[in-house]
Amino acid sequence: SCYKMWGGRFTEGPHEALHSLNNSLPYDSRLYADDLDASKAYAEALHRAGLINSAEADKLVKNLELLRFDWIEGTVKILPGDEDVHTVNERLLVEITGELGQRLHTGRSRNDQVVTDMKLWLRKAIRETLGRLSGIIETATRQAELHLGVLMPGYTHLQRAQTVQFSHWLLSHAFALREDGQRLLELRDRANVLPLGSGALAGNPLGIDRLWLAERLGFSGVTANSMHAVGDRDFVVDFIYCCSMVSLHLSRLAEDLIIYSTKEFDFIKLADGFSSGSSLMPQKRNPDSLELIRGMAGVITANLTGIMMTIKGTPSTYNKDLQYDKQFCFQSFDKLSQVLEVTDGVLQTIQVKQESMEAALSTDMLATDWAYYLVKKGVPFRQAHHIIGRVVSEAEKRGVDITDLPLGDLQKFSPLFGSDIVAVADYSNNVQQYNAIGGTASSSIVEQLRLLKKCARDL
Ligand code: ARG
After folding, report:
1. CATH class of the structural domain 111-359
2. Where in this chain does the record put each Argininosuccinate lyase C-terminal domain (predicted)?
3. Which of 25, 210, 276, 355 is such that its CA lies 20 to 30 A from the CA of 218?
C-alpha cells in the first residue's frame, strides 16, 4: 500500500482526475534539494527541542543527505500516490528509517515547509540571475571601451536628435540592467526571513527554536506572524516583477538593435550565430534572436499578471491556489535565463559599423549646438532657439545644409555669428562639450564605465 501523509479520516483516495490536477511533482521536484536542506535543519531543531535524541537526529540527517544522491542520479521512483516533492521526500525517508522518519514532520506543515523551500530556491535563482546580469554589463562595458569615440545619431521619437557616442547609447542599456540588479538585491534582503516554524497557520507549540533554525539555514531573521508567513507569496510576485523588468529592458535593447540592423540604418551587423535565414527568400538575414528576446517580455509579464490574479481574493493563510506560484516563478526564471544568455552572445559578437553610423550624421543635428554657440555669446536661449530655427528654415528653403550658408547670410539672422562657427560644425568636437556628469563626452563615458565595472563586481 502506498505511503500517505494524510488519509486517516478518509474512506477512499482522491479521484484520478483530482489526483492529476493536484499533482505538482512535474514542476516542484526541482525543489528537492531545498526541501532536504530545510528538513535536515528541522531534524536538528527537533533534537534541540528534546523531541528526538541526538542519535535519531543524526540518523535523519544522514538519510536525508542520502536521498539527495537518489535525486541527482535519477533513481527516485515516483509512485502513483505521490502528490508533491514534500510527500515524496517524506515517503522515501520513512522507507529507510521507519517510524523515526515519521517523527520528522512533528509540528511542521507543508504550508510552512513549501514557503521555506521556495525562499531557499529563490536565493539561488537571484544569485544566478545577478551573475547573468553582471555578465551582460561586463560585455557592454568591454564593447563600449573598444568603440570609444564612435559617433552615431541619437534619437528621440525615433527622429534624429543630437550626436552621441555609440558607447553612450550602449551603456544607457547597461544602466537599466544595473538597476535591475539592485532591485534583486533589495528583494533578496527583504525576503530573507524564515517562515519555518509557522506550522499550518497557528505557529509551533513544541519549543522549536526558530531563531536557531534561521541562522542554520542562512536567514537573517524569522517571520513575525505565522498566518502571514504561510499565505505570503509576495516574494514570488516581487521576483517575477524583477524578471519582468529585466525582460522589458532587454526588449528595448533588442528593438534598438533590430532597427539598427536594417539595411536602411545599417549601424550594426548581427553575427551569423544569432541570425536566421528565410525558407523562401535567399537573401534574407533575419534578427530572430532579437525578436525572441523582445517577445519574451510578453511571456514573463504574463506570468506576473498570472500570479497576481492567482493570489487575488484568496482568504487568509494557505490555500491550494498558491501551488500555482511555482509554474509562474520557475518559467519566468528559466525563460529569463535563456534570453539573458542570448543577449550576452549577441552583444559579444555584434559588428559595429562605424562608417555607416557616422555617415548618418546630418548637419540639422548641429542646430542645438549652434543655439548654444549663440548662448555662449550672450544671447538668451529662447532667442537663440528662435534664430537657429529661422536659419534651419532658410537652409531648407534653399535646399542646402545649414553649414552651407555663407557667413554673411548667417549674420543677417544674428550679428554674433563669426568665423568660429566652423568649429561647431565638427560633430566630434560637439560631443566632447557634453561633459557634465551623465553626458556623452568621453570624460563622462569613462566615469560611466567605472560605475558599471564596479557594479558588475558587486552584483
Ligand atoms: N504542494 C503544495 C504547494 O506547493 C504544498 C503545500 C500543501 N499544503 C496543503 N495543506 N495542502 O503549495
Report:
1. mainly alpha
2. 365-431
3. 25
